[in-house]
Amino acid sequence: MTAGAGLGMTTGEPAPHIGARPLVAIFLIALGVRLAVVVATGAATARFGDALSYQHTARALAETGRYPRRTDAFYTRPPGYSAFLAVVTLGHPERVVLAKVANAALGGFSAVLLAAIAARLFRSRLVAIGAGVAAALDPSLVMVSSDVQSEPLFLLLLLGAGFLLLVATERPSSGLALAAGLFTGLAVLTRPSALLVAPLLAAPLADRRWPRRVRVHLAVAGLCGALAALAPWTIRNAVVYREFVLVSDVGGFNFYLGNSDLMLRFYEIRDRQRYNAWSDETDRLLRDRWNELHAAGLTSPGAITRALVRQTVGDALARPATTARLLLHKVWDWLRPYPNPMFWPLSVVLGVGALYSVLYLCAARGLWIAPRRGASLFAVTFLLASMLAHVATFVSWRYRVPYWDPVLVLYGVFGAGGTLAARWKQRT
User: Fold this and answer.
1) pLDDT tens-digit readout, 75-87
2) Among 9, 120, 155, 191, which has the minimal tally of Cβ within 10 Å of its Cβ?
């Protein structure tokens, strides 16, 4: 395999057969842990702050058959998770228990899918099972899969796209590449930040194992699949708003808030009382800006987004030193291995911090020693692109989880146990 192969993940050796029993066990472990957290935190209570918006949107969708023009006070969320919520609750999103069980199940399937990806990446049954179990127990993946929030669906769609693209380059298969694109498009419709990683569907162009014509077909099929998933929603937006809105206008507000002076002040907060005051001030800032734009005659999502982007870019260019300082804060906020001490007890901060510190080191080693250099390059590019998408707009530790944790688990398990697994295979 050449070092430049974009997804050069095969060496002629077939992927090991994991077996149904280990996969079922991984799913049950993941599901059980997540359901235990659901019970411990209140199965009938939605604790997540955005849950109410998702529920209102899902209810409107179920009752009217149409997606509302606006889901929140200032913007409209993408439709992916609200539509999923309407389906799994049978049109009754107030049934929080059903929503939480569905998200827990999504978390279980994600752990299984991660094991399948590991088997194809590393050609080791033990590493695959280890990655699946690690994903089942990963504390961050568990937490985001145990409440009414979009991360579990988004994670499964991302992993599904990655798995399909991986298989498509091994065969190769334009049909599977098209399916990978469809999954990517659905992920974008769940969380629009995935737009910045969608271009990685063209990675087969760098896979020099196949003729150029084959590589082009794979890349075009993947990108066409993503466009096919997005097109109906974009057309709907054009009909409803009479303008081009690719997915949602939430990005404009995140870009504006994430690069404001108020965001810089966030990194000076050290207690919940000041945080609550900051949160109230954030609402006032967005409301004032919203009113200003409407008073100026800017009422459509596209016009508001363009105005917010222009103002944010202008402010950033006018104060380069402050902008650079804010970017450094956001980079560290994304990379830090421990959760925010404002929201978690010291024992959790120290325990999770220690776990992620080890996971970072093991993943770095795994990326360094992995024999499939093209796959490692793809993974690193994915990590950087997803970080850039959020550092440029709005950073939250929760946003990092579905992007980074799967890669950290995959290469962390390989980095920690790949050598041992290889030696065990030689002995047996």
Assistant:
1) 889 999 999 999 9
2) 120
